[in-house]
Amino acid sequence: MIAGDADALLALYEYSYKDLLSYGVQLTGSLDAAKDAINDVFLNIWERHSRLKPVKNVRAYLFACIRRNIFHTKEQPRQVIMVEDPEVYSSSETSYEEILIAMQQSDETRRKVQAALSKLTDRQKELIELKFYQNKDYREIEEITGMTVKTAYNTIYNAIKVLAVDLRDVITSLIVWAVISDFIS
């Protein structure tokens, strides 16, 4: 791609698009804004392809570019939304958002989940997304966010504690339902 191979850029775009889109939606709260950010990043990469330096972790580089693009062009604070667009979640992995959406069968559960998520900081939401949906290890999170491994670990740990306390009864209900379903079948 650095040598000007447009097919290489297209292959990279197609390979990473779904993950970048999911990450972009988490950062922006908007499918359209995430798509725009991805397109801007790839156009910028193509325009600068001859001046780019080789990178060790292309995926981490792209995530950092998307994040930088979104936060340098966005005016309003980010909010996490539950996206039900199949284009975003067509991968075979189950994201924490999909799990939360599945849990939102009743208005009461929906209210509890939204209340728990609202207690997390934007940074906690971002790190939860990177760690559990994107399956990033702490070194990759360090590369993407610029925070130390220890800070990322502590931030994720604190976010999980908040969610566990606030969603205790929801989690208990899911466990009971799983046990009953297992017993019936």
From TrEMBL:
GO MF annotation terms: DNA binding; sigma factor activity
Family matches, as InterPro entries: RNA_pol_sigma-70-like, RNA_pol_sigma-70_dom, RNA_pol_sigma70_r2, RNA_pol_sigma70_r4_t2, RNA_pol_sigma_r2, RNA_pol_sigma_r3/r4-like, WH-like_DNA-bd_sf
Xref: Gene3D superfamilies: 1.10.1740.10, Winged helix-like DNA-binding domain superfamily/Winged helix DNA-binding domain
Keywords: Sigma factor, Transcription, Transcription regulation
A Pfam match: Sigma70_r2
Gene Ontology biological process terms, A to Z: DNA-templated transcription initiation
RNA polymerase sigma-70 region domain location: 12-70
Domain RNA polymerase sigma factor 70 region 4 type: 111-161
Family: Belongs to the sigma-70 factor family. ECF subfamily.
Protein name: Putative RNA polymerase ECF-type sigma factor
